[in-house]
Specification:
Elements: E1 2-6, H1 10-20, E2 25-30, E3 55-56, H2 57-66, H3 68-76, E4 80-84, E5 93-98, H4 101-114, E6 118-122, E7 125-130, E8 135-140, E9 143-146, E10 149-152, E11 169-172, E12 175-184, E13 198-203, E14 206-212, E15 217-225, H5 237-245, H6 250-253, E16 259-261, E17 266-268, E18 272-275, E19 290-292, E20 298-299, H7 307-324, H8 329-343, H9 345-362, H10 375-380, H11 389-396, H12 409-417, H13 430-444
Parallel strand pairs: 1-2, 1-10, 2-6, 10-19
Antiparallel strand pairs: 3-5, 4-5, 7-8, 8-9, 11-18, 12-15, 12-16, 12-17, 13-14, 14-15, 18-20
Length: about 450
């Protein structure tokens, strides 16, 4: 088949290479011109491009299954496999990839451009062509180009043929964040870590994280409720650095003797949980030959690092279905929609419930034991009863669906009902952090204009 893929993000690029290696002719359509001659790459319109990413084991598994040569190129470019040591009856395991999104996408894009059968066409996909019954191609900057299949990997904000599908569900998850990238100094060691990605700590009213990345770089992050406007000034360098130095764990990573900033402070907002299927409001395939994939189907709060993992899992399943139902694009679409409903929708539902409840607790509410606990509290309960990790561990690794937690949820709820609460991590609460930020801004006499972001 001749296939058009709209969108040159990780899912679109991965899908293009996988399809080309099965003998299809693939044209990727994307407005972004790619990296500049000097290596800089702004990737305008992709807010998350320079923010930290946790590339989970599902990403490594997808590369190993479909394009191990690309994984080799990533390792050669400075990415490192995240490996957990053997223990608790489990062998040493590869659980992810330490890599910046920019590095990951740069290598994947270069591999796609070098792949026989793949063409990258810069431009804007204006719409899908059809003969009234099936998709027949794509209109790109006004030009009509015939294709046998159009794959929409244009992301959550993409509007390609948006009027054909049933409306999606979801919305803003209620969180915003700021992050900054650093390079580890020569001779310096990594700072404190408690997770495969690096460091994750939930404090009173906010979250901090540190992500290990490629080439001895790392990113630090502070996430807050979007409604907490007092912390909006964290986007200023002075406020961000002062706040980070006041938070144990993060302070060690911001030590000038450990790392040097390589980006400005980067704001991130409009974080959404969304889900949208393939079918129309009557449950039918609206236009055979048009299939949506990646963030165009499902997005989840990025603080859990599930996005690229879910995108590549979709890509692998779509490619399998195209092999299984050769030429029958209606069957492919129906089967793919059913697979997404079973394997993606639960992660969306999981994060909606989690986000709503953590915002309620951050606003002063206590754990509500009158209803099922959200996932984050079940994970917290493993500190009181480590035996719960037999289920919580596979869930955290995305080896099982969130429904698996139902087995241990009653035990976790009983722990909280008995009065147990997790020991809070040391550090300022949200009010204290807001006061600190306000004081910095007052001393600096800063106007409320964000620092420039240049790449």
């Amino acid at each position: 088949m001749q296939i058009a893929i709209v969108g040159a993000g990780p899912t679109g690029l991965f899908t293009a290479i996988a399809l080309a290696r099965r003998g299809h002719g693939v044209t990727i359509v994307d407005r972004d011109p790619g990296p500049a001659a000097d290596g800089e790459w702004a990737r305008r319109g992709v807010m998350q491009f320079h923010h930290p990413h946790g590339l989970r084991q599902q990403v490594v598994q997808a590369l190993a299954a479909e394009m191990p040569d690309v994984q080799d190129r990533l390792i050669a470019a400075g990415a490192e496999l995240a490996i957990t040591p053997a223990g608790n009856g489990r062998p040493e395991m590869v659980v992810g990839l330490h890599c910046r999104r920019m590095t990951f996408e740069r290598i994947l894009r270069a591999a796609a451009l070098a792949e026989p059968g793949v063409t990258l066409r810069p431009g804007h996909a204006d719409g899908v062509l059809s003969d009234g019954a099936t998709a027949t191609g794509l209109r790109v900057d006004g030009a009509q180009i015939p294709f046998d299949l159009v794959v929409n990997a244009s992301g959550r904000a993409g509007r390609l043929a948006g009027d054909l599908r049933a409306p999606g569900i979801g919305g803003d998850c209620g969180l915003s964040y700021v992050s900054r990238q650093y390079a580890l100094r020569d001779g310096a060691d990594w700072g404190p870590m408690n997770a495969p990605v690096g460091l994750i700590r939930t404090l009173t009213g906010y979250v901090i994280a540190v992500f290990l990345q490629d080439n001895r770089t790392y990113s630090t992050l502070i996430a807050r409720p979007s409604s907490e406007k007092r912390l909006a000034d964290l986007r200023f360098t002075e406020a961000y650095e002062a706040a980070g130095r006041a938070i144990p764990g993060m302070a060690e990573w911001l030590d000038p003797e450990r790392g040097t900033p390589i980006t400005p402070v980067l704001p991130g907002g409009r974080l959404h949980n969304t889900y949208r299927g393939q079918l129309d409001e009557n449950g039918r395939v609206p236009l055979p030959g048009l299939i949506h994939v990646g963030d165009a189907v499902c997005t989840t709060n990025p603080t859990a690092g599930r996005g690229i993992a879910l995108g590549l899992r979709q890509s692998r399943r779509l490619v399998e279905l195209l092999d299984e139902h050769s030429g029958d694009l209606v069957s492919v679409t129906v089967a793919f929609d059913a697979w997404c409903e079973e394997n993606l929708r639960p992660w969306y539902d999981d994060h909606v419930y989690w986000d709503e409840d953590i915002l309620r607790r951050w606003a002063g509410g206590d754990v509500d034991v009158s209803r099922p606990l959200p996932s984050d509290l079940i994970l917290e309960a493993t500190a009181a009863d480590p035996s719960l990790m037999r289920v919580a561990g596979p869930y955290m690794a995305m080896e099982v669906l969130p429904s698996a937690l139902a087995e241990i949820e009653p035990q976790a709820r009983a722990i909280f009902a008995g009065g147990w609460r997790p020991e809070p991590h040391p550090g300022p609460n949200r009010d204290d952090l807001a006061d600190l930020v306000s004081g910095v801004m007052l001393r600096e006499g800063r106007e409320r204009r964000p620092d420039p972001v240049r790449f």
